[in-house]
Design goal:
4-stranded parallel beta sheet, 285 residues, alpha/beta
Length: 285
């Protein structure tokens, strides 16, 4: 369990400061890309392929399409495509096949390391003609803590809290779950970031494949005197698991991360990181 003991300021101030930091980092990454590019050669930016898991919930597809549009608005010169691992079209192999031998960066719309990041996406990419580079998953990252905070505030979490209320409050960070221990490590890191942001305990819990479950985490917090518990939905988009976790909320549950503006910034940050690594490899080859 993770806790922080001092109150925090308004969400907009935190998000603004994080956004300014991200802009600074992006500028430095862009500078490194210019230094690593051969003199006199302006290569077109590689395509950015958003890799979503896929869901039978139609809201999931609407969400990732809206997120792709936000990315396009922020970086108009970058071709942005969408590919799914399963359940929705376009499937990732079809997206990559349509790109031909184009250079592309695959950005997983996944929040931690796990089977899809380590096996599924690399195998699908290796079978495609496109020249691809895989970016890191979105989480953990401070921007995700800011998005989670905003979603909790939208759901009724107070932006100011007295000491008595703080002592009985907590959050369960509800994630999909994975048998990969790296995934749990990443989720715990996000929980610590959110706990520091909120000033109350944040407990990771899972919809499947890992423990504790969300109801178990809620009961454990209640046993420690934390009866005012909110569920923070640590899912990119709506779906069965997100709904299942929200239904276990004893008080309130936030919406999934969705097409929040900071999500688009984070996607581009992962894209730029992968480009810098690739250019450095080419320069040293």
């Amino acid at each position: 369990m993770t806790a922080s003991h001092h109150p925090r300021s308004e969400p907009s101030a935190h998000l603004d400061s994080t956004a300014h930091l991200m802009d600074s980092i992006s500028s430095r990454l862009a500078g490194r890309l210019r230094l690593l590019s051969p003199l006199g050669h302006r290569r077109p930016a590689p395509a950015l392929v958003l890799v979503a898991h896929g869901s039978r919930d139609p809201r999931a597809l609407e969400t990732v399409r809206a997120l792709a549009e936000r990315v396009r608005e922020l970086r108009p010169a970058v071709p942005v495509h969408l590919g799914h691992i399963e359940l929705n079209e376009p499937l990732l192999p079809d997206t990559l096949a349509a790109l031909g031998d184009t250079s592309a960066v695959l950005v997983p719309l996944l929040l931690s390391r796990g089977y899809h990041v380590k096996r599924d996406i690399p195998e699908l990419a290796a079978a495609a003609p496109a020249r691809t580079r895989q970016a890191a998953p979105l989480g953990p990252h401070p921007l995700l803590a800011e998005v989670l905070y905003d979603r909790l505030v939208e759901a009724g979490w107070p932006t100011a809290m007295d000491a008595a209320t703080r002592r009985v409050s907590a959050v369960v960070l509800a994630a999909a779950g994975s048998r990969d221990p790296d995934s749990a490590t990443d989720t715990r890191r996000t929980a610590r970031l959110l706990a520091d942001r909120l000033g109350v305990p944040v407990v990771p819990a899972y919809a499947s494949a890992a423990t504790p479950t969300v109801p178990t985490a809620v009961r454990a917090l209640a046993a420690r005197g934390r009866h005012r518990v909110a569920i923070a939905s640590y899912f990119t988009a709506p779906g069965r698991f997100a709904t299942q976790c929200a239904d276990a909320a004893p008080w309130t549950a936030s919406a999934p991360l969705g097409a929040h503006p900071a999500m688009a910034r984070l996607i581009l940050h992962r894209y730029d990181e992968a480009r810098v690594v690739r250019q450095a490899e080419l320069a040293s080859a």
